[in-house]
Amino acid sequence: MKFALLIAAVLFLLTTTSLAQTAKDFAAEWDKQHISSLPPSNVRHKDLQKYLEQLKKLGLKVEEVGRSYANREIYQIEWGTGATKVFMWSQMHGDEPTATSALLDMFAYLQNNRGKTWVKELEKTLTIRGVPMLNPDGAELFQRRNLQSIDINRDAQALETPEGRLLKKLRDDWSPNIGFNLHNQNSLTTVGKTDKQATISFLAVLGNAENKSNEGHERNKRICAVMTLALENFIKGHIGRYDDAYNPRAFGDMISAWGTPVILIETGALHSKDEQFLVKLNFVAYLSALKSLVDKSERSANPKIYDALPFNDSGNLFNFIFRNANVVNFAETSELFTADIAINAERRRANESAPTFIREIGDLSVFSGLEEFNAKDFYLVQKNGLLRIGASGEFLFYKKTRKIDWTAKDLERTFPPDAVFSNGKWTRGEKLLPKKF
Ligand SMILES: [Zn+2]
User: Given a cut of 80, is residue 2 above it in pLDDT?
Assistant: First the structure.
């Protein structure tokens, strides 16, 4: 009898653990099963098409639903047979690619795991439609706007872009119950006034100028709480709340106003983590959200967890700060002065080097850099001799003990520097300047 009880207890534990998928389980499964192989920023339209062929082979429904301004195909993936309709779209801004890869991984995962009890429940309860890469022309050029140079996310009223018209049509023809608007935000966005990067930020979109909440918005706040708790396993302190100013030209607001309450997910960055890590976070967030809709756990989620997220902030953080540099600005003045210099890198594809530009000069003691170097024992010279805001962030460093004739022609060759910093990297004298964390 005792043995029978023990067996029953073990069986119970086995079934409940196989049903109870945690955020960590989702992350581990992404590690083993994701189909996206390229860094998202390197994914072109032709790469998307290859991924979609893979999804078709798995038996997923993939169809062309429209064309971009340059006549590139725009696709929609569908999975599930349930009554609750979920609509997810990514890369409306061409240089915001993370969610495109995450959507592909999510659909492949759901299709490949249809034997699992909780996935079966999802399939029965939800119909999910996803549009990966709504702006393929912008993605090709790695630019925010479409080929008309219009920001599609400011075209919800005018509807002058084919991509914007398509997004509205896909919503209007189907009237989904929930929408996920998937973007990337600046990698230097911070969680409130801290120096912590906002790796993921959420917004349960209200969709009206009067800030009136409704049932769909309340539900979305609870879903944001579910996703926050899931992601805190990996990026605690790095989750922010997006600024929720109503913008009647923006799709997130208007799709909510048209009757599909929208959740905005903005992916930022996390220093020393690659783009694929961000894909995994998105994957975990989507599955946690979808599962909570199906097992009804969203109903008991605490919306205050979402309310308590600090708002996004900017201007507190730079890519690099060189502290206490002895600045030689010989093109402007013969006098030396001491200053902190901050530089930021431009957004580029993973396989391209990102140029840096000087963004701040002076006492920067209240700011932080993702990487900081102590330059107090060095002279710092801008590569072209011109140290000013907006100039390229390429620097030559000379030990202070050296005697240098700053007026020398071709300074770099006549007096070879001890260290050189260029395009965000040390090309000479790495580790010479002490790094500060
Ligand atoms: Zn965006």
Answer: no
Calculate how far, in angstroms, residue 395's C-alpha sits from the geometric centre of ligand 1: 32
335: CA distance to ligand 1 center in Å?
A: 44
**pLDDT exceeds cutoff 60 at 434:** yes
Is the whole model's pTM more than 0.85, yes or no? yes
Split at pLDDT 50, 70, 90, the class of 8 is low
**d(CA 236, ligand 1 centre) in Å:** 23
Q: Which is nearest to 398 in space by CA: 410, 422, 380?
A: 380
- Rounded to 5 degrees, φ, ψ at 427 are -100, -10
Q: Using CB atoms within 10 A of its CB, is residue 297 exposed (0-12), middle (13-18) or buried (19+)?
A: middle
Q: Which domains does the chain have, with CATH numbers?
A: 21-313 (3.40.630.10), 317-436 (2.30.40.10)
Residues paired with 183 in a beta bridge: 266
CA distance 194 to 124: 43
Ligand 1 centroid to residue 427 C-alpha, Å: 33
Residue reference for tokens 């349930």: 82
How many angstroms separate the alpha carbon of residue 261 from the centre of ligand 1? 18
Q: How confident is the model at residue 18 (pLDDT cuts 50, 70, 90)?
A: very low
| Contact in structure between 97 and 43 (CB atoms under 8 Å) | yes
CA of 183 to the centre of ligand 1 (A): 4
